[in-house]
Amino acid sequence: MPSSPLTDRVTVWFGEHRRDLPWRAPDRTPWGVLVSEVMLQQTPVVRVLPVWEQWLRVWPVPADLAAAGTADVLRAWGRLGYPRRALRLQECARAITERHDGVVPSDEDELRALPGIGSYTAAAVVAFAYGGRSVVLDTNVRRVLARAVDGAALPSPAHTVAEVRRATALVPDAPGDAAAWAAASMELGAVVCTARAPRCGACPVADLCRWRADGYPPDLHAARRRTQGWAGTDRQVRGRVMGLLRDSVGPVPLVEVERLAVEGTDRPRLQRCVDGLVADGLVEVVGDDEPALRLPA
DNA sequence: AAACCGGGGTT
DNA sequence: AACCCAGGTTT
């Protein structure tokens, strides 16, 4: 699409209000952008910042991470959550080192073929690392378009064909403009057009927002969204075990893990979680008669 | 299409 | 205590 009031105004707004983030600095590298995108998949900016800084200091290029010890990688990942992604990021670094001569690909299909890189992250790296044209459709952009164009409070739970087609049609023709729109629309959704308490007074397109014009109708999909529990889930137990191992220098006896894991977790459940962590490559079992757990070497 | 996967912050 | 945040992989 040549341009539209929506893309133009959001992009201009971004030029004035963009947050200064290290992975947006002029001296950023494609590798730094990729690392930031993987971390930001699951974690708010303020928690990613210090980990990203250290990560890039210790492993400034993919070959550095490829050669690192897995335990060091998992400790550096810290409490960002979803530690399987740290493993995939290291696999990704190895693939870039071996298959792409250490250069982060700029081709979207090649990016998507890397471990841990899906459609969103591939599009984001194309746009933010290389200034290329891609369709960046994360939850923020989906919400902005659902509101401004469709007049819906929130996007549908799953991507729809029509939604992707619409987002594709909206991307400006020039690669630089497309990349700017991608960053701008994400930023608008992240800081102004937020899920719960949108700041419409600060929105550059409030006057053409259909959701606002229609009087903020409620979410049609509310009944089908269900909040995922946390207390007592396998995720909580896994997180607790990983925390124990991260903070321990040597192997931790399984009996000690059982004692320090989540209160009220029965033995079969803990065993199931440990087995899952082992299967994921996040934990190693050492010793037979006196089994202990540790982070993989 | 749906389930799985963390952890911190806000309300 | 309840709710919010988010994308990739696996089944």
TrEMBL record:
Keywords: 4Fe-4S, DNA damage, DNA repair, Glycosidase, Hydrolase, Iron, Iron-sulfur, Metal-binding
Gene Ontology MF annotations: 4 iron, 4 sulfur cluster binding; 8-oxo-7,8-dihydroguanine DNA N-glycosylase activity; adenine/guanine mispair binding; metal ion binding; oxidized purine DNA binding; purine-specific mismatch base pair DNA N-glycosylase activity
Example GO biological process: mismatch repair
E.C. numbers: 3.2.2.31
Superkingdom of the organism of origin: Bacteria
Pfam families in the cross-refs: EndIII_4Fe-2S, HHH, HhH-GPD
Cofactor: [4Fe-4S] cluster
Annotated family: Belongs to the Nth/MutY family.
Protein name as catalogued: Adenine DNA glycosylase
Organism: Cellulomonas aerilata
